[in-house]
């Protein structure tokens, strides 16, 4: 076994004998061989028989043939939960229309992508409920928020319930319902904010 001028190991052939005295070529090589298989033909001069034996071949030259393989993979859409994050709805009461407008708030500053979304967040009647889709196919699954509109502020009175004898040391405030409404009373919470 030797090497060619470019340093590639040459293959050596060793005759083997099959039954019937038919010589064939055995191919041995220390060079790594690709998975390609070729056919080698040998002819026995004495009998005129033609034998074909599959054998691995080793390529010791550069090829000009290039194979380009492109695999088209469908683009996956991002998660809507990741895109929009946690969405909080703040309801702002409009005294003139007695309706609410909903503002979206959250850590990722959510905005409507759906064309009708902005309209659906305006002029909401008290105690109404509806689902609004924020996304417009840009992510999956669709981001849908549930609007659960509170009762209007005109339904409540804030009264001072502090006894006169304790007026210098404490304060008592109480919300009283003055109009009936259809909202679930269990969902209502009251917040007090004191300003100087």
From TrEMBL:
Positions of the UniProt region annotated as Disordered: 1-80
GO terms, biological process: T cell receptor signaling pathway
Residue ranges with Polar residues bias: 27-78
One GO molecular-function entry: protein tyrosine phosphatase activity
InterPro entries the record matches: Ptprc (IPR016335)
Species of provenance: Rattus norvegicus (Rat)
Record's protein name: Uncharacterized protein
